[in-house]
Each structure stands twice: as C-alpha cells, then as structure tokens.
Amino acid sequence: MTTIAILGAGKIGEALLAGLIGAGRAPDSLMFTERYPDRVAELTERYGVRGVETDEAAAQADVLIVAVKPQDIDPLLQSLATAITPGTLVVSLCAGLPTALYERHLPAGTPVVRVMPNTPMLVGEAMSAISAGSHAEPAHLQLVEDLLSTVGKVVRVPESQQDAVTALSGSGPAYFFFLVEAMIDAGILLGLPRAVSTELIIQSAVGAATMLRDSGEHPVTLREAVTSPGGTTIAAIRELENHRVRAALLTAIEAAALRSAELGKAHEPG
Ligand SMILES: NC(=O)C1=CN([C@@H]2O[C@H](COP(=O)(O)OP(=O)(O)OC[C@H]3O[C@@H](n4cnc5c(N)ncnc54)[C@H](O)[C@@H]3O)[C@@H](O)[C@H]2O)C=CC1
Ligand SMILES: O=C(O)[C@@H]1CCC=N1
Q1: What's the rounded Cα separation, in Å, for the pair 181 and 99?
Q2: What angle do CA 20, 140, 144 make, to 5 degrees?
Q3: I need a surface site. Which of 99, 153, 220, 256 has the fewest CB within 10 A?
C-alpha cells in the first residue's frame, strides 16, 4: 500500500488523517510530522499513527502531503530539498502556493499536485479540487484523486482557478458556520433557549444541504418553494436584500481569492 506522510498535522492535516483512517486506511501506511511533542503524542494516541521527523518522512513515504501554513513553507522546503527521495510525489494543500514554488526548490522533475480541500474531510464530506504541476503525470493526478475520493468529492481544475476554488470551497465551510452562528443568535433575540435555537437551525441547515445535493433542483427553485406570497420568508428576504447580503458575499469571496493570490505572490522569486 502507498505510504503517505502528512507534513504538518494541524486542523486540515488532522482532518485528512482522521478522514483516511475513517475510510479504512491502515494506520501503519500513514505517518505525520508536527513541530510540538505534545501534539505528536496527542495525535499518535488518537489515531495510532506514527509521528516522525521531516527527513524520515521524506525518506520513507511515497507521497508527501504538505499541510503547513503558507507562511511556514520556506523552512520546510529547505529541509525537503535535501531529504526527499527523487520521484516522491508532493501534494500541497496550502492556500495560494503554486506548484512552481515547489518545483523551484525541490529536485528537478519532482511531481507536484496542488489540492484545495476543506475541513468536512473530517466526516468524509470534503470538497477537494486538484491540479497537476508541470512534472505530475496522469498517474500522479489519479493517485491523488483516488486518495481524496475516500474522504469526499474531487474535481480537477486548471491551476489558474485554484485561488477562486480556495475562496469558494476551501473557505466555504466557514461562511456556512458564520451564517448558522448568526441565525442561532437571531433565535436568542426572539427569546428561544440557545439549545432549541441551535437544534432548529442545524437541522434546517442539514435538511437544506441534503435537498441541494439530492433534489437536482436549482437553489432558486428551492428558495421559491419556501417563499409564500405575502408570507414570512419574503419579509426576511427583503431585509437581506436591503442589507446587500448578496453583494457582500460577492465582495467577501472576491477578497478571499485575492488573499490566496497574495499568499502565492509573497513566495515569487526576486
Ligand atoms: N483549515 C482549513 O480549512 C484549510 C486549510 N488549508 C491549508 O492547509 C494548511 C494548514 O492549515 P491549517 O491546518 O488550518 O493550519 P494549522 O496551523 O492548524 O496547521 C499547521 C500545522 O503545521 C505545523 N507545522 C508548521 N511547520 C511545520 C514543520 N516544518 N514541520 C511539521 N509541522 C509543521 C504546525 O505546528 C501546525 O500544527 C494551510 O496551508 C492552509 O492554507 C487548505 C484548505 C482548508
Ligand atoms: O483561511 C485559510 O487561509 C485556509 C485556506 C482555505 C481555508 N482555510
């Protein structure tokens, strides 16, 4: 079985670790690196997976999955440049960082695949978008697609679209959580107990998400079905439009894409 090392087991690294184990992958085919001994002990206990040093991971794993913050990539690339076994597939989960950055620092010909996943990977419901670097062969892309398909959905996109993907599905779960949080507060404003408000909104979110996924209907049709003439929903929609929530979402998601591009530019040569 392919041996996988996750380099940086923070929020997304742990989500991947948990997702892969949850999907039935053998813990002894996985390893991870972390900076802090306490975190290594915590993850080893929780998942039964080995914590190793970067050079050990680089020497032993067939696939290295980079999940450190973009701001922490430089020292890691320096370590990998000398430790990596030629031909090892490098998979980057980092927002904004182009495959060209890895190709500049790692031995010539290193295959790199850029991925933008999201945290629902933790429950096998990730949305991941993958793009091949210039030395990644179709077999490399297929391997990454097969791996990530065990923890959610996968689409292939040109790398030029990855900043937009990052803004949409990479950050996307946070927008939904933000919305849910605000809606629960609205229940509090209306005098409901927090537990009741939370249950009402979370189940409404799960129901709406399931309809979006399974009904085959456009979101507009689904919303129209809730919006009775002269009723309650249209009274709320008018306020959402008055407060320009649609425009705010367009601007917010554009800001996320610009930030992703900026993270990449910070690592351009010169
Ligand atoms: N959190 C999210 O929803 C998503 C995050 N990403 C990307 O995943 C990457 C990680 O993000 P998070 O998990 O949120 O950050 P995080 O800060 O939770 O995790 C990063 C981990 O890497 C460790 N680390 C840093 N340098 C290291 C090194 N040289 N060796 C070993 N471990 C090292 C840190 O100790 C930390 O635990 C980022 O590049 C981010 O853009 C991508 C999609 C979604
Ligand atoms: O906020 C971030 O930068 C990361 C990338 C996508 C989701 N979280």
Answers
A1: 36
A2: 25
A3: 220
Show the DSSP H helices in the chain as ranges: 11-22, 37-47, 54-60, 73-83, 99-105, 138-149, 162-165, 172-189, 194-214, 219-226, 232-242, 245-265
Q: CATH number, domain at 109?
A: 3.40.50.720
How many domains does the chain contain in total?
Answer: 2
Choose which residue among 33, 68, 77 to substitute to test ligand 1 binding: the one with the highest number of ligand atoms within 8 A of its C-beta.
Answer: 68
The CB of 96 under 6 Å from ligand 1? The reply is: no
Q: Do 107 and 9 share a structural domain? A: yes
For residues 96 and 203, state if they share a domain: no
Whether ipTM exceeds 0.90: yes
Domain holding 54, by residue range, is 4-159
Q: Counting atoms of ligand 2 from 1, which one is nearest the CA of 95?
A: 5
Please state whether the predicted TM-score (pTM) of the whole model is above 0.80. yes
- Answer yes or no: is 221 within a domain: yes
Q: Give the residues surrounding ligand 2 with Cβ less than 6 Å away.
A: 95, 166, 170-171
Decide whether any atom of ligand 1 lies within 6 Å of the 72 Cβ.
Answer: yes
